[in-house]
């Protein structure tokens, strides 16, 4: 967003959609009772590391406060329009991994693993997406300990200027989570703090003691040279490794798979009423 007013217009549309979703019902009466009572919503922000890099922390505070107040105005307006209670919670910071990465944004409040890194995606061996990815040259390997699943590695360049997780201490990550919990999120901020076991591991107890009053929950992940476990979702690589993998990748074409399933491009019309649908052939 270029301005806070543009940001507020997006929030208005997002909140209207989310509030409308609470008008629906699930198949579970107990869930419907809670949803009808709470109308809980979680409008989330992402790309926060990029925002701080380009606009600074003070401007983030102004956007958070202005955006949060705007959402409360939206909640009042749309709750009255729909004739339903105000939402008990309205904002959050979610992990937002894949959705953010597709838009070229850093996920949630997290900093990238490295300037260059691998983003791993898991999918079943029966997925129609695997063959086009294999033909395009993306690295694919069997998932360790997960039979029938493949792991696709996608090389990513986060771009210049963005600080990486190597440059952000455990304490700064906790402080940013606390900042967002204070100025934006009334739901829990989703944050996995990456820490150095040797230099920061012994400080976790003290950190939790201080931040217990400003955080609703937090996760920790040790940063080890080879990763905490095999085939992690993110793995740092060198620029040379990035260029080598990228040189093996060609144009990715999913069109051939759609050609084999024309019914997916032209689904039949469905005429539905009272829970029944008629398929018109």
Distance between the termini: 45 Å
- Bin the strand percentage: 15-25%
The average pLDDT score comes to 89
Label the structural class: alpha/beta
The residue ranges in which pLDDT falls below 50 over 5 or more consecutive positions are none
Q: What percentage of residues falls in helices of 4 or more residues?
A: 40-55%
The succession of helices and strands, N to C, reads HHEHHEHEHEEHEHEEHHHEE
What is the 3D form?
A: globular
User: Oligomerization state of this entry?
Assistant: single chain
- Rg over CA atoms, rounded to whole Å, is 22 Å
Number of DSSP helical runs: 11
Strand order of the largest sheet: 4-5-3-8
Short description:
By secondary structure, the protein is α/β, with parallel strands linked by helices. Helix content is about 40%, strand content about 15%.
Give your account of this protein's structure.
This protein is α/β, with parallel strands linked by helices and 281 residues long. It contains eleven helices and ten strands. Strands 4-5-3-8 form a four-stranded antiparallel β-sheet. A two-stranded parallel ribbon has the order 1-2.
SSE topology:
Elements lengths: L3 H18 L7 H10 L4 E2 L3 H8 L1 H26 L8 E2 L4 H6 L13 E9 L5 H7 L3 E3 L6 E9 L12 H14 L8 E4 L8 H8 L7 E4 L11 E3 L2 H9 L7 H6 L1 H4 L4 E4 L2 E4 L2
Parallel strand pairs: 1-2, 6-7
Antiparallel strand pairs: 3-5, 3-8, 4-5, 9-10
Helix pairs in contact: 1-4, 3-4
Search tags:
single chain; 281 residues; four-stranded antiparallel β-sheet; two-stranded parallel sheet
């Amino acid at each position: 967003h270029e301005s806070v007013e543009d940001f507020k217009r997006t929030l208005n549309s997002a909140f209207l959609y989310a509030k409308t979703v609470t008008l629906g019902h699930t198949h579970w009466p107990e869930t419907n009772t809670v949803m009808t009572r709470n109308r809980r919503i979680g409008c989330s922000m992402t790309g926060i590391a990029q925002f701080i890099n380009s606009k600074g922390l003070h401007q983030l505070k102004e956007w958070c406060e202005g955006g949060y107040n705007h959402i409360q105005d939206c909640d009042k307006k749309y709750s009255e329009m729909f004739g339903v209670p105000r939402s008990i919670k309205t904002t959050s910071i979610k992990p937002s991994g894949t959705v953010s990465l597709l838009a070229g944004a850093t996920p949630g409040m997290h900093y990238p693993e490295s300037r260059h890194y691998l983003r791993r995606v898991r999918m079943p061996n029966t997925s129609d997406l695997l063959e086009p990815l294999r033909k395009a040259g993306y690295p694919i390997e069997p998932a360790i300990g997960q039979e029938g699943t493949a792991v696709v590695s996608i090389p990513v360049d986060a771009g210049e200027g963005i600080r990486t997780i190597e440059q952000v201490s455990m304490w700064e990550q906790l402080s940013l989570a606390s900042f967002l919990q204070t100025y934006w999120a009334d739901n829990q901020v989703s944050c996995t703090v990456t820490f150095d076991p040797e230099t920061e591991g012994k400080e976790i107890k003290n950190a939790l003691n201080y931040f217990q009053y400003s955080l609703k929950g937090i996760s920790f992940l040790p940063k080890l040279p080879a990763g905490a476990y095999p085939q992690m979702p993110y793995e740092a690589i060198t620029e040379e490794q990035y260029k080598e993998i990228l040189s093996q990748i060609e144009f990715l074409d999913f069109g051939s798979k759609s050609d084999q399933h024309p019914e997916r491009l032209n689904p039949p019309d469905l005429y539905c009423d009272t829970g029944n649908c008629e398929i018109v052939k």
